[in-house]
Amino acid sequence: MSGFDEAEAGGTRTAPGGSRAGSGERGAVAGWRRLDRRTLGVTAVLMAGVAVSAGTPVAIGTRSPWLLPAAALLVGAGVLLEYVRWRHTRFRCTAERLEIEFRFAFHTRKSLPRERIRTVDLTANPLHRAFGVATLSIGTGRQERITLSPLAKADAEALRTELLHRAPSTQDGPLATLDPRWIRYAPVSFVAPTLGLAAFGSLFKVADWFGAGGGLLKWLLGLFGDLPLAVGILLLLVLALVVGVAGAVGLFTEMWWHYRLDREPGGTLRVRRGLFTTRTITVEERRLRGVELVEPLGARLAGAARVDAIATGVEHDDDKTESKTLLPAAPTTVAHDVAARVLGERIEAVELVPHPVAARGRRLRWALLTVLGPVLVLLLLGALLTDVLLVLGGVLAVVALPVAVLLARDAYRALGHGSRGRYLVTRAGSVRRSTAVLTRDGVIGWTVKQSVFQRRRGLATFTATTAAGSGAYSIHDADAAEGLVFAADAVPGVLMPFLETSVSAEPPRT
User: Fold this and answer.
1) Which residue range(s) make up the domain with 49?
2) I need a surface site. Which of 153, 329, 389, 502 has the fewest CB within 10 A?
């Protein structure tokens, strides 16, 4: 026996003391490769930056003679640890598996079957770019991932091509490239106010560490002279919004500068982007199960939309949308064009079935309950404690109720579903309107939910289950009978028993 314990799912092997594998393993050593040695220079520069940033404030305050030796020791220790990692790490790519192992005081090995590899992403931060190296991240879509960091950029590109079974050749050409005018959509996203409030929150947090939080607030309000307190707070919010807008523009520029979407020979979609840190994300079209056209409220009002991939093996996380984004916020016409080039079908040409009026009533009731709950709480507390809460409750009711009604009506108008060719389409949402286009053969099942209130109004929610994207895409509050027929036609055979039961339950007609 080799002395290794291998986890069946991830293929990770560990053995204490660096024990050797069996004879078959020793015979395959010839194919092992090392990471790029320039990682030592990257680490030295990185640790020097850490030493300078951490030591400068200390040097200003203490002028200690031990700072330089301590900084040199920190850099030396970091480089030594990195040398150990580089010297004892190796990897290889065989016809069946990608393997990486670390062999020092203990021995670990991780391997991925090549047929299960779904994503091969290439990233290079500014320091990596200066040294001509990059990080290659290979995943299976099931939380199994191998990261090779760093590799020479050319080697990383060659290995990416090898793992995706693609022969290097001329690209078919871009499906989309960045238009600098798209930056204007960054301020209308929810990122802008979030960044502004986060910046002010961080500023007050740092000030609070030094016991100056209250003084900072007084100083900021003092900038506006003798204006009333409410006006000063409003101006501070405006200032936070301006900071957030600047931050959103900077973040969009860093993430999406040099953006380009290509279809490569053999059926691979490749997204390249990044100003300081370059990123390359690859999606195989045979793994693609559709696209999602995402229109947040601000972007939709500005006439913009985003295109996300619905693909197996692509991690779906709303906090990290860039991992599946094929097109950033761009004019809606551009988004439709890109989706059509990817799918071979135009989304806007699909005629969607409107949902019953009863669905509008449900949204109006939800919206009113969402607003009236906090309003009633404020009014009750105001009656018991202070008139200020009564005023806040009244203001909230006057402002929020009309907004809630408008959003509810808009959400109803967004509801729709339809099909065309090999795709089915579902659309929903107001604050975040989403149009999901799924391949019929990518739907592996349907979930039909009908609450007591839905049953009384003849409504039901049909959820298409798929192994790609978020795993479930719903048709909300559709007519129960029509939705059942639609789902059965979209994926024949899955819902046939339910249709037969429904038909047999109907009374005979005279």
Assistant:
1) 5-163
2) 502
